[in-house]
Amino acid sequence: MQEGESVCRNFIKRVITGAFLASGIVAIFTLCPRIATSALMSVLLAVCMWEFSWLMARIKPHLIDGPPLDLEQYALASLAAQWQFSSRSIVVALFALTMTIVVVAFFIGFYYLVGKDALSFDEETLYSSFVPYVAVSASAGAVCAGLSPTKVDAANIALGQVSFLVIILDTVLCPYEDTHCTYVIDSAFVLTCECILMGVLHLSTAATMKEAYIGLLLDQIGIVYLVGLVQILSNFVDLSAVSEGRKVVLVLLFAVWAADSGSYFTGHVLRWVGYTRYHKLAPHLSPNKDVEGTLGGIVFALAAAFIVTYVLNMATAAVTKTLLTIVAILFSRCGDLFESLLKRAADVKDSSQLLPGHGGLLDRVDALLFACVVFAVYNIHIQLI
């Protein structure tokens, strides 16, 4: 909450923001081509990895007893000096434009020179789906990589984008109507390869072994936390795009945002009535998160889930809806606490200032990333029966 802002005003702002984000995602999900969802997830991943890189850059000096973080330093600083540009925005924009052109040209050339006969999609799919996705992914990745603290962080973001592309190739290469089409691309194998490459990079660039090990550990946390969970969210939405499971996505979105607003509202109402016997969840991580707020969030989430399932005419048993929502919100609370752990270690309040008055994008999706795991498992279940 901003200083001097009333509780009611901040609550209304949260509700409006949640409704706006949910409406935007629902619009993309229901009205735009299937590949648009994957492109949105690619941008989400790039921005979250950028925010994560700055959190880790603040944590690392405390672990290796190094110099404090220079907030003016960024991955393209040396390139800006060579080009004699003082504006960070201009340097990053030129870099992103160049990288986008190079990456798009590479994939088009690869399609015609090497993979045209081997791949199962035609030129129309190439230019209507694959090239737009690559352009969006490359530009978002290049901007976030250029604004990251170091060149190693930039490489991590770039590898994250490549790994995400490989993992979600089913979206690009499979026919829209075929929900059973899959390419044999194991996500665990892709993430393992990314971790190995980052390990080699850290070992070859770090000044000491301690710095290399700590840098590698922090990056591996980010790879599993962000690349792993975002691809689960992306595949969950993608699998739902051509089935009744699309309704489950709507339940997930509204339940998570209702829980967030409900927890916030419950906490302030209890303080207003003079309630003092709070049961803290993890006071060393986030002193404002407690059992009472979590229960209030679950009540709001259940109300949202039942309303959405009623409006969408979903034939889901009340017990199933209740258990699914409760477990998902408990998982989402773990997501909140995990990000609180990262921010506490980095000694910051928000993951970034990207969203004025609301913190960073990672602050907005931390709960969603964890909750989507529960809904994804449930959606796979209903796809198989």
TrEMBL record:
Keyword Transmembrane in record: yes
Protein family membership: Belongs to the CDS family.
Membrane disposition: Multi-pass membrane protein
Pfam families attached to this UniProt entry: CTP_transf_1 (PF01148)
Top-level taxon: Eukaryota
Record keywords, A-Z: Cell membrane, Lipid biosynthesis, Lipid metabolism, Membrane, Nucleotidyltransferase, Phospholipid biosynthesis, Phospholipid metabolism, Transferase, Transmembrane, Transmembrane helix
GO BP annotation list: CDP-diacylglycerol biosynthetic process
InterPro entries, per the entry: PC_trans
Span of the signal peptide: none
Entry keyword ATP-binding: no
PANTHER family from the UniProt entry: PHOSPHATIDATE CYTIDYLYLTRANSFERASE (PTHR46382)
Catalytic activity: a 1,2-diacyl-sn-glycero-3-phosphate + CTP + H(+) = a CDP-1,2-diacyl-sn-glycerol + diphosphate
An example Gene Ontology molecular-function term: phosphatidate cytidylyltransferase activity
Protein name, UniProt field: Phosphatidate cytidylyltransferase
Gene Ontology cellular-component annotations: plasma membrane
Pathway: Phospholipid metabolism; CDP-diacylglycerol biosynthesis; CDP-diacylglycerol from sn-glycerol 3-phosphate: step 3/3
E.C. no: 2.7.7.41
Top EC class of this enzyme: transferase
Organism: Aphanomyces euteiches
Subcellular location field: Cell membrane
Stretches that traverse the bilayer: 12-32, 39-57, 90-114, 126-148, 154-176, 188-207, 213-237, 249-273, 293-311, 361-380
Main location: membrane
